[in-house]
Specification:
- This protein has 506 residues and is mainly alpha-helical.
- The chain has 2 domains: 190 residues, Fumarase/aspartase (N-terminal domain) (Fumarase C, Chain B, domain 1, Orthogonal Bundle); 276 residues, Up-down Bundle (Fumarase C, Chain A, domain 2).
- The protein contains 20 helices and 6 strands.
- The strands form 3 sheets. Strands 1-2 form a two-stranded parallel sheet.
- The longest helix has 32 residues.
- The chain is elongated.
């Protein structure tokens, strides 16, 4: 793993981590290909060049997909590679986010650096130059079926290498290359295919989602802790020995977080004795079980992403003994399954959070708080409609949690007769993550207001710091105000990761 404090990220191909992908996508380090990677690519290229002179080899001297049986004359092979990129750049829809495009380009260069694709080293060098010069191709959202990988998205990225197409800002790619002193790439045998035949967009989104979900799940524990205090609930259900009776790792982590966040809470101590309630509702008591199950699902998704980061994804593959073999490593099923599973788990984190919000706002169940945490009951609506927003986001997550990877539509004259739809799985996973963070933002605002309304009782130190941080951007209780900007500010605060830091969860 590369030191995150270093401004240079060395790309060897074999040792790339999820953290490296996130850095390349979002922090814009200077990326350098290692000498070992350059040597591997050159060795594989020499194999391709020898094969180009012999019998027809798929992707080197033949057409593609359903046209794989068509032999291409030597003098037309360069034109074939360019034609492939141009014709495959057929996406439609809104532009994909910049961090996704950067992750995709970085990961495609990673596969080339492994030395099983047979491209010249200059191809990966040009990709790195795009990243280092902050040149982001425009990649439309729709076009990938997740096998053969992300053909259309990768082709749009490859267009920029040729000095063709447009960038995310709408400007011509040729202008950006000229300004950066980058010579447009002239493709040779196998190179157009190698630029487009991978799961790099899918993997990039899964890596980014794994990182974002890890932060999100800590925040879910934090906003739950605010609600526990705001509702005068108990922390006894989170006791370590009680949790150990069901030894799921994620459950243990969430319970430990809650114990840490609520340690020595004066609010909880205030009703430790004499409270007639025997136990809290499931949305409070079972939080470690639900949040923990999502953590375990995240661990599975992380493992799948790490395995893919250790994989060579292309077709055909150049083997170390000189063979070139067609295979199916470009099929996105492993990534699609993991993304769908994680979307389901995170949607449930949002669902249990919405139930906690509802309890905070219902005066029949909030143990002494005003209805909807309103200032002047009857005149003010408080956070009533904030809950509506959380409920709407939960409903949207239920739709997004329907698996994409159970679908398949045959294409390319039935040559590609089963596809993964993993691009769609990772696209909707990112939407679920955004939605859950917004639901947590509503709980953050509601839980903090409930704690303020319990004054003079005081919260635990970690939750006090989280409330104080929120108060920098969202005022405390009072008459009704324009609520949307406050919820947005809470959402942005969660996205920054600062609540995790002040609460001791980072």
């Amino acid at each position: 793993m590369t030191d995150p404090n270093q401004t240079t990220l060395r790309l060897d191909g074999r040792s790339v981590t999820i953290e490296d992908v996130v850095r390349a996508a979002r922090s814009r380090p200077t990326i350098e290909l290692t000498s070992a990677a350059m040597e591997r690519m050159q060795t594989a290229r020499e194999i391709v060049e020898r094969l180009a002179e012999g019998e027809p080899t798929y992707g080197v001297s033949t057409g593609f997909g359903a046209l794989a049986s068509v032999a291409i004359p030597t003098e037309r092979r360069r034109a074939l590679q360019v034609a492939l990129v141009r014709s495959h750049a057929a996406g439609m829809g809104d532009p994909v986010e910049t961090d996704v495009v950067r992750a995709m380009i970085f990961l495609r260069a990673r596969t080339l650096a492994l030395g099983h694709s047979g491209t010249r080293p200059v191809v990966a060098e040009r990709m790195v130059q795009l990243l280092n010069n902050d040149i982001t191709p425009l990649v439309p959202e729709f076009g990938s079926l997740g096998a053969s990988g992300d053909l259309a998205p990768l082709a749009h990225a490859a267009m920029a290498l040729l000095g063709e197409g447009e960038l995310a800002d709408g400007s011509p790619a040729s202008d950006a290359l000229a300004a950066a002193g980058i010579e447009p790439l002239t493709l040779e045998e196998k190179e157009g295919l190698a630029l487009t035949n991978g799961t790099d967009g899918i993997l990039g989104m899964l890596c980014l989602s794994v990182a974002d979900a890890a932060q999100l799940l800590d925040q879910a524990d934090l906003t739950c802790a605010l609600t526990v205090e705001g509702l005068l609930a108990t922390d006894r259900a989170y006791a370590a020995d009680l949790q150990a009776l069901r030894p799921h790792p994620g459950q243990a982590t969430s319970a430990a977080n809650l114990r840490s966040l609520l340690a020595d809470s004066p609010i909880i101590a205030s009703h430790r004795v004499g409270d007639a309630r025997v136990q809290d509702a499931y949305s409070i008591r079972c939080t470690p079980q639900v949040h923990g199950a999502a953590r375990d699902t995240l661990d599975h998704a992380r493992l799948v992403a790490e395995r893919e980061l250790a994989s060579a994804i292309d077709n055909p593959m150049v083997m170390s003994d000189g063979r070139v073999e067609s295979g199916g490593n470009f099929h996105g099923a492993p990534l699609g399954f993991a993304a769908d599973f994680l979307a389901i788990a995170l949607a449930e984190v949002g669902a249990i959070t919405e139930r906690r919000i509802d309890r905070l706002l219902d005066h029949n169940r909030s143990h002494g708080l005003n209805p909807f945490l309103a200032d002047e009951v009857g005149v003010d609506s408080g956070l009533m409609i904030g809950h509506y927003t959380a409920a709407a986001l939960c409903s949207e997550n239920k739709r997004l949690a329907a698996p994409a990877s159970v679908d398949s539509l045959p294409t390319s004259a039935m040559q590609e007769d089963h596809v993964s739809m993993a691009w769609h799985a990772t696209r909707k996973l990112r939407k679920v993550i955004d939605n859950v963070r917004r639901i947590l933002a509503v709980e953050y605002v509601a839980g903090a207001r409930a704690i303020d309304l319990r004054t003079p009782l005081q919260p635990a130190e970690p939750t006090r710091r989280a409330v104080s941080l929120l108060r920098e951007v969202v005022p405390g209780p009072g008459p009704d105000r324009y609520l949307s900007p406050e919820l947005k500010a809470a959402d942005q605060l969660l996205a920054s990761g600062r609540p995790n830091e002040v609460a001791g969860l980072s």
